[in-house]
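User: Study the fold:
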Amino acid sequence: MAVSAPTTGSTARKPLLTFSQIINMNIGFFGIQYSFGLQQSAVNPIYDFLGAAPDQIPWLNLAGPITGLVVQPIIGAISDKTWHPRFGRRKPFFFIGAILCSIALFLFPFSSSLWMAAGLLWILDVGNNTAMEPYRAFVADKLDASQQPTGFQAQSFFTGFGQTLANFSLFLFPLIIVGHTGKIPNWVFASFMLGAVCSIGSVWWSARTTPEIPPTKDELEEIRREPLNLLTPFVEVPSAIRAMPRIMWQLALVYLFQWYALFCYWQNSSKSIALSVYNATPENKPLYEQAVSLAGSVNGWYNIVTFLTAFALVGFAKKYSPKWVHFVCLLLAGMGFIAFPFISFKPLLYVAISGFGIGWASMMGIPYLMVVKEIPKERYGVYMGILNMMIVIPMFIQTVTFGAILKNFLGNDPRKAVLFAGVLLLLAAVATLRLRPRKASLADQTADLPTVPVGGVETPLPSK
């Protein structure tokens, strides 16, 4: 493995990594996304098993938006101002986050009441959010501009892979693990215990195999000049928002529609399948458990599509621009959601959700390509946190508004909730057309110089 040496100039090229090194540094995202996959597909059915009413579900998911809004920008800002010769800059944060996730996943199936499950979801979300944005900043720190598309789409790949395993555990374990412990099926315990192991194990592997690039002399002087204190994030975050590039403001509208829609789908996919395929509700537990299992399989399939298409999107983004790739992917996702609630024939559910699988591959990687080119590298952490604020604010809006919309306008029908999500994704696609990414500078263009491997690290060929 190549250990990167510190650079002294702000424009110096970073050593290029082999594909296997890029994969190693992103394996930790697998565990984080296994946890998120369970959160998408298993937490809401657990709420249903514990007796939650349909219009209570958005409120019970309040942990995600609130912790994302508070934790990620604060952790991002702190990590920008952190350096330890042994532990690094970003790795301590996503390792601590993984430990919290593992603890919450281990305890979650033992929930005996709604308040206990909701409390553990808060801990799980704090862990996920502590890990997530330092991990994205880690990729931006470590990789040269020419390799950042591969790095971010590697995270998209592991997003699909981790969530695939999480969702297929919901499909496979009910077939081999029967019975209940209290109100919770025993197969839920197996899924969450596996998630606890994956969360800490995969992050440990990435931390062990991938050294961070030490700060330059100028960066170290800046860190010493402005030492970390309790006020750091409360100064850094507002300052970064005031200086935020135009592309991030434009992306905020896309994210408003996009992430509101995704929360609507994740909260209602199992119940939509229960009605459209089994004509059942959560009160009919045997049929509803079958619906939850089928939803796990369907959601597992869209994540397979995600990791199969993630790296292909890199080539399309370079050829046609990230903006147009994201536009097409959102169209496919929206059309899939619109068809989803009208399907009663099981195999067609997999066809419909494939559009979302492609869209999810784009959502988890492509927008970061547009943003990372326009933010200063010494503020990667705080800006990745702010970008996550643009994700969780729509989720928070959905949490506090969608219960009333579902009850008063959609008749508490989860199929209509998924249809509503599809329309919102089409609006997100239209908003994508308004994005105006900065044109590539000379430095960006030279980042695409051809490369040849030298001793496990790639170096650029000299220009003629």
Notes: Residues 1-11, 441-464 have pLDDT under 50 and may be disordered. The longest strand covers residues 451-454. The two ends are 30 Å apart (CA to CA). DSSP finds 19 helices and five strands in the chain.
